[in-house]
């Protein structure tokens, strides 16, 4: 199944000059959604995973599904002011600005084997910030996993120390 058929381009979103890859058509089609989920799991193989970390907000779609299938815990990484407990924070640069990500201090245990999942790998800023949070908490990132990758932005370079897999590449 050609999953790229289910990803539409939105010009000038969220700001002028950005070509946004909209995955909602893929999510709305039950077969495409199922094929994508299986594809993401296949990229992990038989690697032991203790925690799946998903970034706000679209990492919350596939992240819990992957965690459930892998019999792992799910850790949400959120924007400031969304997590109620003690947290670690990490600033980062986006393709179109800057932001901060937060994770609960007790979300990752020393030695946890972590899969980091998000919908898109663009500049690598978000993934790199999450890597810093996981490492500060004592976790070991064993893989980065993305639904799609915008290769022209070279985001993979920022997370080159860990295996990185993308289901779709643009």
UniProtKB/TrEMBL annotation:
Belongs to the purine/pyrimidine phosphoribosyltransferase family. Homodimer. This is Adenine phosphoribosyltransferase. It is found in: Cytoplasm. Catalyzes a salvage reaction resulting in the formation of AMP, that is energically less costly than de novo synthesis. Its EC number is 2.4.2.7. Keywords: Cytoplasm, Glycosyltransferase, Purine salvage, Transferase. The lineage of its organism: Bacteria, Pseudomonadati, Bacteroidota, Flavobacteriia, Flavobacteriales. It comes from the Bacteria.
